[in-house]
Every structure is written in C-alpha cells, then in structure tokens.
C-alpha cells in the first residue's frame, strides 16, 4: 500500500511539474539564457578559470574545461572555448584600467545569472518589487558573482578528486583485478554527479527571490542532475551523428554552444518547477525576499494604477 502511494506521488509530481513547465514557456526562457550565455561566456570562463587555477594553474583548468566541453560539442568547439579565454585575458597598463576592466568583467559574467534569476523567479511566481530600487540590482549582481566563484571552487574540487581517482585507478589497474578497478569508474561518476547536484542546489537555493527549505531543494537538484547526465549523453550523440553546426559554417561552433546551453536550461527549469511543485505538495515553507512580491500582487498593483 505504501509503495502504491509513493508511485502515485511520483506520477503526480512529474505530471504537475510538466504542466507547470509548459505553462511557463521554458523554450522562450532557455533561448534568453542561451543568448546571455554567449555574451557572458568570455568573462564567465575567465573568472572560473582564474579561481580554480590558483592551485592547478590556468592552463590546466582551461584544458580541462575545453576537454569536457569538447566531449559534448566536438573538439573544434573546445578549441574555440580556449581561444575565447585567451582573447578575454585582462591586459592592462594602469590601476584605473585594471579597475574598469575588472568591473566590466564582473558585469559581463553575471549577465547570464541575472537572466536565470528572472526565469526562476517566474517559476516561483514572484517578481522583483519595483520599489526595491538599485539595492536589489546590486545584490543580484553580488549573488551572481558569488555563484560564479563557487563554480570555480567546484571546478577545483572536481579536478582534484578526478585526478586523484584516475591516478589511483591507474595504479590499481597494474596491481589488482579488473572488476575492482571498474568500481572506480562508478566512484568517478558518483563524484561528478554529486558536484553537479551541489551546483544546481546552490542555484535553486540562492538565485531566486524566495527563501526555500533545503529539503525541497535537494530533490529538485538531484532530479536535474540525473536529467543533465542523460541529456549530456543524448546531446553528445546528437552533435556527433547529426552535425547540426554544418549548416552555419564558421559560426557553427557558437551555434552548438547556444544549443547546448538552451537544452541545459530546459532541464534546469524543469528541475526548478519540480522543486516548486514538491515544496507546495509537502508543505515546505516558501517566503519571499524583502526585494520581491507575489506575481499576482505585482500585476494587481500594476493594473490598479492604470
């Protein structure tokens, strides 16, 4: 009986999530994020690489990012990523230009997260209070920048752990049977899955203008990570065998990046919808930040003045 109830709850959660996801027009939101991602990509990569590169060196981190993206998008796109980072490096001759360059870098890198924040706010049926003013704008940029730094720290942890596991796997491969070594591939996968889940959890918890319990966040983040891993394999197969970039000539690699970001955003928004549905079904508290208001209150106030 209990198993039947669990199955019924899962069906409800997924079906209701899909309905809410379609209602919020995720394709429009993902297209917006993909556009801002292309504009933010040089600055975003530069900050992440410099953060993670403190220990390993920028070249090692840059190569790792290009390699991981190359497995999905193709190695030509990976080379373009390396070229973008090389051209985006800050070259300054004075403190003033360095300060201006740093400000521009932060502003550019946070653009994609501001777009994400607006979309996830829509999922949570919340809008920024028009009376919040410049303070809300500054806080959004600070939050976005903090998440970017966190991505750099996660990248550092990912490289550190996977390097250690690969080295240990190589040693064990020479001294132990193959079936024991195969467990390290599973451990490697679980580590990657855990890091991705943590990243999505941080985005769901801190990016929207609502205060939500960790209990609902973890379920949404885990589902998103699972879909992301499946989607990564599917997109890799699609890019290799269908070659959608061929019709765009020299711009093909950038188009691949936009397609990948757009598809990843669709998954991220589905996970956000699941988190929202899960929180409402199981009674988790949802509190609005002091900079936000319920969407229905926003429109009621807006149209009452007109």
Secondary structure layout:
Blueprint: H1 2-23, H2 26-56, H3 58-73, H4 75-88, H5 95-123, E1 126-128, H6 133-175, H7 178-206, E2 210-212, H8 214-242, H9 252-281, E3 286-288, E4 292-294, H10 295-305
Antiparallel strand pairs: 1-4, 2-3
Helix pairs in contact: 1-9, 2-3, 2-4, 2-5, 2-6, 2-9, 3-4, 5-6, 6-7, 7-8, 8-9
Describe the structure.
This protein has one domain. It starts with a helix and ends with a helix. Helix 2 crosses helix 5 (95-123) and helix 8 (214-242) runs antiparallel to helix 9 (252-281). It has 306 residues and is mainly alpha-helical. The protein is globular, with a radius of gyration of 21 Å. The mean pLDDT is 78. It has 10 helices and 4 strands; from the N terminus they run αααααβααβααββα. Keywords: Cell membrane, Membrane, Transmembrane, Transmembrane helix. Pfam families: Virul_fac_BrkB. Its main location: membrane.
